[in-house]
């Protein structure tokens, strides 16, 4: 569905700017990324408004978005799976309430995982040279570190889930 919307928008954009040198595929790809983020934020916030925790969900979405930009992580095979999972989790996680010590423990575990695995699965999606990967790792850890001051249970859970998504399990191929 998103792919089709992005394709139609790309065709319409190219018709309106005849001197443009970009291909439909390039514009479509960019629009797919943009629409994924837009749909995820809009539908998550609509549900959050209905459930009465809009600010919590917005903070969670923004924090996880920035952490994911620096750390990478698992990519679902279909965009609708990603959107649906994010909408559900971003509206369930605000209800989580953890003790002070559990929040700290989750942050520590998340930082350790980030230092071991980040950045993960970004090689094909970025132009950032590998020499800068340690900077991405540090920025990811710094984002999580701020939660030591906030002591937010939803952020602790979100950061742990994101950190777990960095782990790559290699499958054995049986012939």
Automatic annotation (TrEMBL):
<dbReference type="Pfam" id="PF04647">
    <property type="entry name" value="AgrB"/>
</dbReference>
<feature type="transmembrane region" description="Helical">
    <location>
        <begin position="141"/>
        <end position="169"/>
    </location>
</feature>
<keyword id="KW-0378">Hydrolase</keyword>
<feature type="transmembrane region" description="Helical">
    <location>
        <begin position="45"/>
        <end position="67"/>
    </location>
</feature>
<keyword id="KW-0472">Membrane</keyword>
<dbReference type="InterPro" id="IPR006741">
    <property type="entry name" value="AgrB"/>
</dbReference>
<dbReference type="GO" id="GO:0008233">
    <property type="term" value="F:peptidase activity"/>
</dbReference>
<feature type="transmembrane region" description="Helical">
    <location>
        <begin position="21"/>
        <end position="39"/>
    </location>
</feature>
<dbReference type="GO" id="GO:0016020">
    <property type="term" value="C:membrane"/>
</dbReference>
<dbReference type="GO" id="GO:0009372">
    <property type="term" value="P:quorum sensing"/>
</dbReference>
<protein>
    <recommendedName>
        <fullName>Accessory regulator AgrB</fullName>
    </recommendedName>
</protein>
<feature type="transmembrane region" description="Helical">
    <location>
        <begin position="102"/>
        <end position="120"/>
    </location>
</feature>
<keyword id="KW-0812">Transmembrane</keyword>
<dbReference type="GO" id="GO:0006508">
    <property type="term" value="P:proteolysis"/>
</dbReference>
<keyword id="KW-0673">Quorum sensing</keyword>
<keyword id="KW-0645">Protease</keyword>
<keyword id="KW-1003">Cell membrane</keyword>
<keyword id="KW-1133">Transmembrane helix</keyword>
């Amino acid at each position: 569905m998103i792919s089709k919307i992005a394709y139609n928008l790309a065709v319409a954009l190219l018709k309106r700017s005849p001197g443009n040198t970009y291909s439909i595929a390039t514009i479509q790809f960019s629009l797919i990324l943009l629409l994924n983020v837009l749909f995820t934020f809009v539908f998550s916030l609509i549900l959050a408004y209905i459930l009465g925790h809009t600010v919590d969900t917005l903070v969670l979405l923004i924090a996880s978005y920035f952490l994911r930009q620096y750390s990478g992580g698992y990519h679902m095979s279909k965009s609708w799976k990603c959107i649906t999972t994010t909408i559900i989790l971003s509206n369930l996680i605000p209800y989580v309430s953890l003790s002070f010590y559990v929040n700290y423990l989750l942050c520590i575990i998340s930082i350790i995982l980030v230092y071991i695995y980040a950045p993960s699965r970004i090689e094909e999606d970025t132009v950032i040279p590998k020499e800068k990967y340690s900077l991405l790792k540090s920025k990811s850890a710094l984002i999580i570190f701020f939660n030591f001051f906030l002591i937010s249970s939803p952020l602790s859970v979100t950061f742990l889930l994101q950190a777990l998504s960095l782990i790559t399990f290699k499958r054995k191929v049986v012939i």
